[in-house]
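Support reply, case 0932

Customer input (verbatim):
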Amino acid sequence: MQYISHYDSPLGGITLGSDGESLIGLWFDDQKYFADTLDKQALVKELLVFEETKRWLDIYFGGEIPDFTPKLLMKCSKFRKSVWDIMLQIPHGHTMTYGQIAAKIAKENGLDKMSAQAVGNAVSHNSISLIIPCHRVVGTNGSLTGYAGGIDKKVQLLKLEKANMESFFIPKKGSAL
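Our regenerated output:
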């Protein structure tokens, strides 16, 4: 059985998903791939993991750095998990490029190179937003692109984390990078 709960953030509603013990999803309510790891019959129920996650979110949206992580269960392929594990290591207020993640995965697997596009696909399908900080992944040229919750939210999250916004730019819709 799977469960859901709701959180009202300063950036809009967030839906939380759980298998009863671990957090399996955290999505902005209007984001791309919303609830992609949830069964259609998920029940609304308050759980300990939801309480912990909401406390984490309160601290985060209060402008502080949470000193704990709720119990997570990444329901994904081995490759996506390797990308998401790297995202978990990106410090608050810092960023990493898709290419840097690809290079790190290639090195860890003894490969000459890895596709940044494959990494981008894994990043975009992150089902535990914010806690697995996909908003901290940027294009090689500093472009703020590829956030399933919307570029406006990505900008606001990076500003909340006091990231150096001078090194980023937002591509215009329809422009090639």
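We compared this against your earlier run and they match. Two observations from our side: The domain at 3-61 is CATH 3.30.160.70 (Double Stranded RNA Binding Domain). Helices lie at 48-61, 78-88, 98-108, 116-124, 151-160. Please reopen the case if you see a mismatch on your end.
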